[in-house]
Amino acid sequence: MTVPTINLNSGHAIPQLGFGVFKVPADEAEKAVTSALEVGYRHIDTAAIYGNEEGVGAAIAKSGIPRDELFVTTKLWNDRQAGEEPHAAIRESLEKLGLEYVDLYLTHWPTPEKDTYVNAWQKLLEIRDQGLSRSVGVSNHLPEHLDRLVEETGVVPAVDQIELHPALQQRDVLEWAGKNGMHIESWGPLGQGKYPLFEESSVADAASAHGVTPAQVVIRWHLQRGFIVFPKSTHRERMEQNFDVFGFELPADEVAAIDALDKGDGSGRVGTHPLEFN
Ligand code: NAD
């Protein structure tokens, strides 16, 4: 199965569907990523704070898959944004991953009270220039943070990885992305199992119509909306199911019905608001 790619503003391509490893314990990460690579995933999303970069790296090493066929993302944790710390942090992540470079390195949260996210972004640009990450971007940044990054450096992040699913569509960030040539990565694409997306009639009805599961409908919605998505599961059959989303297409009316699930007021949020994470 060929996963479509999206061209980032860095000139590099990213597989639009990947595998996320948030909350996959360190001792299970190698097994989970090995299974994901066997299923066919070639894009893995981890972070220093997940504590499982070594397991991800071990699975990659054992897979024998050529490095240039893989896309690996990791993230700079919040307590390492200041001074030269991002340089030490990427080196530690690369060491744990057993890689010479990552494909994408992100500032994990803006943590605006500390006011170090612009410094972090400047250091990420240096890290990119040193060849330690092919592309760089951010996560959980709101338009006010993105504006400031561009004002101070003139460089638009390749992606902003934000909580995004049908009940929380973050239209202000999407608008900023559209105007500035930045791509959106959806974290918590299935609502992390905390928001009852699968019971919404627009999702359940589309699933019956296409003979697929509600999870497959929601993943398909992300793909058709142009988002980059990496659902997480440690169960092999769900990994397979979440990857098997290229044999059907949601017609425009089904996409529109799922679009209409957006709460608009933020009440669909299942994670932390970026202004509250410090
Ligand atoms: P998700 O929306 O992918 O939900 C995962 C949960 O959904 C699973 O634990 C399981 O309970 C359920 N699920 C998965 N597949 C299913 C299926 N086929 N049928 C039924 N239920 C299914 O949430 P997530 O893991 O938080 O998000 C995906 C990835 O996004 C993470 O693994 C991580 O890589 C990234 N992420 C980033 C941030 C950030 O701050 N940048 C925060 C959270 C997650």
TrEMBL record:
A Pfam family recorded for this sequence: Aldo_ket_red
Domain (NADP-dependent oxidoreductase) ranges: 23-262
Signal peptide segment: none
Entry annotated with the keyword Oxidoreductase: yes
InterPro entries per record: AKR, Aldo/ket_reductase_CS, NAD(P)_OxRdtase_dom_sf, NADP_OxRdtase_dom
Superkingdom of source: Bacteria
Keyword entries, A-Z: NADP, Oxidoreductase
UniProt similarity note: Belongs to the aldo/keto reductase family.
Record-given protein name: Aldo/keto reductase
